[in-house]
Amino acid sequence: MATTAVGDEDGFRAAWEAMAQAGRGLDHQQMLNAMHVPKDAGEHAEALAAMLRRIPDGWGRWVSCDHGWYTLIVELDDHLSALLPNYVIHQVKEKFGGLRYYWESGEDIQDPGDPEPSTPGREGSEEAWTRWSREHDAWSERLDKYLRTPEGKRRTADLESRVALAKKLVDAAEKRASVSCELCGAPGRLHRTPVRCAWYKTLCGVCAEQANYVPAQAWS
After folding, report:
1. Cα separation, 162 vs 16, whole angstroms
2. At what angle do helices 45-52 and 70-83 cross, to 10 degrees?
3. Are 182 and 77 in contact (CB under 8 A)?
4. Is residue 33 part of a domain?
5. Lowest model confidence (mean pLDDT) among 12-21, 63-72, 128-137
6. Tens digit of pLDDT for each residue in 27-85?
7. How far is CA 183 from CA 11, 17, 74, 151, 169, in A?
8. Residues 59, 45: Cα–Cα separation, whole Å
9. pLDDT tops 90 at residue 121
10. Domain containing residue 28
11. Residue 143: which residues within 8 A CB-CB, separation 6 or more?
């Protein structure tokens, strides 16, 4: 998705809070996997919590943007979940003043009657892993044949169509965020703090003035 240094203010704040918690003895993985529903979520609390549950363990369950974009990302999640019920979120954050929505479909095509062999897990012996490797190789060959059947081709085309539409929806939401104030949701444009190493945000005029930001192009 200028040569001047820019920052991810909310990402930095989240990381700083994470470091502070870790310094107080909180287990790092426990902290990452905990639900961090924004304190200002308001009417979006339930929907944002549902989005956080789509983030896998280890990624950090935060939404790193401000209140003005909550409606936008909640609407996007609603559309994506209708297209791809098991889709996965990796990150939702502000970066360089724009929205970044990182995700994957959470779906792959398999023969319904031939599921992928389960791994032996961490406790599996070398013999168990060797046996699994042989079984998985054989399964992969069967899957390749299935994907070439009319049913496999139809299901693959359907998934590709839904993923393509989902990408368009994400692109549209990110473009919409680029003209929406991150703080209040009103029409906005890119602003920056009036220093050489700046923070960037998309803001309306009122919020920009209150936060001491100036239009990005006004700095030279």
Report:
1. 37
2. 50
3. no
4. yes
5. 12-21
6. 777 888 888 999 999 999 999 999 999 999 999 999 999 999 999 999 999 999 999 99
7. 15, 20, 15, 48, 22
8. 20
9. no
10. 9-107+149-218
11. 110, 111, 114, 116
Spatial distance between the Cα atoms of 151 and 205, rounded to a whole number of angstroms = 55
Query: 138 in helix, strand or coil?
Result: helix
Residue 99: name the closest of 37, 169, 175 by CA. Answer: 175
Kindly report the number of other CB atoms within 10 A of residue 68's CB atom: 21
Residue 44 covered by a domain = yes
∠ at Cα 23 (17, 25), nearest 5°? 115
Do the domain assignments include residue 101? yes
Measured in residues, the chain has a length of 220
As for how many domains the chain has, the answer is: 1
| Model confidence pLDDT, tens digit, residues 185-204 | 999 999 999 988 889 999 99
Tokens of 175: 């473009």
Q: Please count the other Cβ atoms lying within 10 Å of the Cβ belonging to residue 72.
A: 20
Distance CA 128, CA 114 (A): 20
- Is 126 a member of any domain? no
193, two tokens: 């703090």
Tokens of 84: 């791809």
59: Cα separation from own chain's centroid? 10
Q: Which two tokens stand for residue 67?
A: 């209140």
The CB density around residue 71, as the number of other CB atoms within 10 Å, is 14
